[in-house]
Structures are given as C-alpha cells and as structure tokens.
Amino acid sequence: MIKVLLVDDHEMVRIGVSAYLSIQPDIEVVGEAENGAKGVELALSLRPDIILMDLVMDQMDGIEATKKIIEQWPTAKIIIVTSFLDDDKVYPALEAGATSYILKTSTADEIAEAIRTTYKGQSVLEPEVTGKMMEGMRKRQTPILHDQLTNREFEILLLIAEGKTNQEIAEELFIGLKTVKTHVSNILSKLEIQDRTQAAIYAFKNHLVEK
C-alpha cells in the first residue's frame, strides 16, 4: 500500500480526495492536515510514502512546509497539488524539494496516477510547468549580454540604435569624443559584436528600442 498524507486547508478538498483514494486498491490515506505547520508535524511522525501538499495555506504555506520536511527528511516524496502556475510558486516549490507538481484541475484518476508514478521515484509535472522550466533553462543558458553594460554604455547603445554618430553622441551627452569611442569599444566587446551596425541590430532584436 502507498501511504499518503493530505495537506490542504480546504476541508472539502481533503474529503473528496481522501474518499477517492480510499477506494484505490494500492493507496491508503494515513493522515490529513489543514495547514503547513500541521503537515510538517504529521509528515515527520507518520513518514508517509507520498505527501500531497497544497501551496496557499494559513500558518505555513506549502513551500515553507516542503522546505522544513526536506530539511529533516531529504528522501520525502512531495507532490504539490495547487491551482497556481505562477513563477513565484512553481520555482520555489521545486527548489524547496517537491518531487512533482500538478494542478487541482487534474482528474481523480490523474492524481492517483501521479501518486503511483512519484512513489516509483519519477517526477510528474504539468505540461505548463515543464514549459516554464525549459524556458528558465534557456534563459540561464543564454546570458543577457547587455546586463553587463554600465548605465552610460547602455545610454550610448540606445543612441547608436537611433543612428547617432560618435560626434552627435558626444554633443548630446556633453562628453568628449574620445570618451564616446572608449564606451563604444567597451559596448562592442561586452555584446560580443564587431561594429556599430551590429550594436543597433542587437538593440532592436532585444527590444531595447522600437523600430
């Protein structure tokens, strides 16, 4: 039997999920908690195979509860069951140690299957969650080069994109021509490009200025 702990602040949700899981031949609900604090207490005392964890709860939310459980029981298998797909919920929950992340819109059969899959040591993620993770990985793998620019260099990059010459930039910013050339050289180096035309293209492609 797969022993499951339910942690959710909505009694009707707990009743509904518990009733469905109770008729599964291989799943047994061993405890219920109405908030994160109680969830941590029961998780560490009952040591269930799977913890179904809500995110938004009184006293202690699901992210904090997950952290506390994992800190004391690193091998705990926690499935986040929530209505939220916001980045400030998904990433912290997974970073806290949650194994799987599913939505409350999932069918009862899908929740039961997620329990079985997670019990076997595999992760179950909503397609939207997987998409967010892949996008996050792409962003981390592709650094935003213009974040390296100083405020002055960024200002000059925008003026280059507007088609300003070095002399015009110097006059507009009240700085010397030699200083402008030094800034331009730094900009090209940091953006890993060869000339001013590529700098302008970079600014447009990254939506730093409007065409």
TrEMBL record:
Main subcellular localisation: cytoplasm
Subcellular location: Cytoplasm
Ubl conjugation listed as a keyword: no
Domain (Response regulatory) ranges: 3-119
SMART domains, sorted: HTH_LUXR, REC
Annotated positions of the 4-aspartylphosphate modification: 54
Residue ranges of every copy of the HTH luxR-type domain listed in the record: 142-207
Keyword NAD: no
InterPro entries, alphabetized: CheY-like_superfamily, NreC/VraR/RcsB-like_REC, Sig_transdc_resp-reg_C-effctor, Sig_transdc_resp-reg_receiver, Tscrpt_reg_LuxR_C, WalR-like
Keywords (A to Z) from UniProt: DNA-binding, Phosphoprotein, Transcription, Transcription regulation
Name by which UniProt lists this protein: Response regulator
Organism: Lederbergia graminis
Lineage of source species: Bacteria, Bacillati, Bacillota, Bacilli, Bacillales
